[in-house]
Design a protein that fits this description.
Shape: globular
Strand content: 5-15%
Strand order of the largest sheet: 1-6-2-5-4-3
Number of domains: 3
């Protein structure tokens, strides 16, 4: 069965199933899901625990045989397998076979990274889901972080003023582990449960993490200030200029193509489909298109080429400077006037 994150707590109070596949890239949520399942399993008599790390060359037949073997004391056990990537051919075959006849005395907990739609249709995944549970962890991005952070603060018995909340959000964005750790620290220093901006500023370090997809979405959404902050954060974290250009350049070229097609009288919806824009990002591109004149679209194309030359050392410009110009153009806040 498929399970949502918000259903896990209630589900864990019922008799547990033989196999659980927990997948997603949010480390904190994966840890919390695994902890909850372990506690529930111990309460239901699973007193032993084994932990395995899926590695190249691992003997999956031996591991699967061990799943069906009782411990020396006849206790029920949790067998936890942690994956760095999706299961390889040997792992997939072993998991599919085991799911066809799982041990009644073993709870198999699979901790996996994010799996795409194709991986979720694989035989091993479907077999595990049929006999157990698949739990896709939610993605906490810039749009969902405020609600998540508000809920966590409320759980901790904390409340903030608007300035304090905005500052906390800015300093932990993209890093849920740091967010939870900072909330635990803030519980110790908050006066009567109230967090002011001064308290947050004095207590919380800047732990924000961003990825190249975040900055592209932020720029398209028109938030120039945040996009600039993200770009500085990526630079400080050692992200390569080429990776950032890949994300910004792809969206810049797409926006330029939309502008050209729209100016030629083509329907915007058809242009979205022709350019392979996902449904959830179409709103971003529609808003960006409305504020991007043809001159800015042409400048975007020029700046992508300029960034590529700068990164390759073929011009005297800094690649990061050109990337900033691209981000600001996408956000509708060009650093310089659009070229005629």
């Amino acid at each position: 069965m498929k399970l949502r994150w918000d259903q896990l707590g209630r589900h864990a109070r019922e008799p547990l199933l033989p196999v659980y596949a927990v997948f997603g890239d949010e480390t904190l949520l994966q840890q919390e899901a695994a902890d909850l399942l372990r506690r529930a399993a111990r309460a239901q008599g699973y007193s032993e625990r084994e932990v395995h790390h899926a590695e190249r060359g691992m003997d999956w037949n031996e591991l699967m045989a061990g799943l069906n073997t009782l411990s020396l004391f006849g206790d029920r056990k949790i067998v936890e397998v942690r994956f760095a990537g999706k299961p390889d051919t040997a792992a997939a075959a072993a998991l599919e076979k085991y799911a066809g006849n799982p041990s009644p005395d073993t709870l198999l907990l699979l901790l996996l990274p994010k799996l795409d739609g194709t991986a979720q249709k694989a035989k091993w995944f479907v077999a595990c889901e049929n006999v157990g549970v698949s739990l896709q962890l939610p993605v906490i991005d810039a749009s969902t972080l405020p609600d998540w952070l508000s809920a966590r603060l409320q759980q901790a018995g904390l409340r903030t003023d608007p300035e304090g909340f905005a500052l906390l959000r800015e300093r932990v964005e993209g890093n849920l582990l740091a967010a939870q750790q900072e909330i635990e620290k803030l519980k110790l220093v908050a006066v009567d449960g109230l967090l002011t901006a001064d308290t947050v500023r004095a207590t919380v370090g800047d732990s924000a993490r961003y990825n190249v997809y975040d900055i592209a979405d932020c720029a398209l959404a028109g938030d120039a200030v945040k996009a600039a902050r993200m770009l500085n954060g990526l630079r400080a974290e050692g992200e390569s200029e080429s990776s950032v250009l890949w994300a910004l350049g792809k969206d810049a070229r797409t926006l330029a193509a939309l502008r050209e097609g729209a100016d030629a009288g083509q329907p915007v919806n058809a242009l979205m489909q022709q350019n392979g824009i996902w449904q959830k990002r179409q709103g971003l591109f529609q808003r960006a298109l409305q504020r991007t004149p043809a001159s800015a679209a042409r400048q975007l194309a020029d700046e992508v080429l300029a960034a590529d030359m700068a990164i390759k050392g073929q011009s005297a410009e800094s690649g990061w400077d050109v990337l900033l110009r691209i981000a600001m153009l996408l956000a509708g806040r060009p650093l310089f006037g659009a070229r005629p």
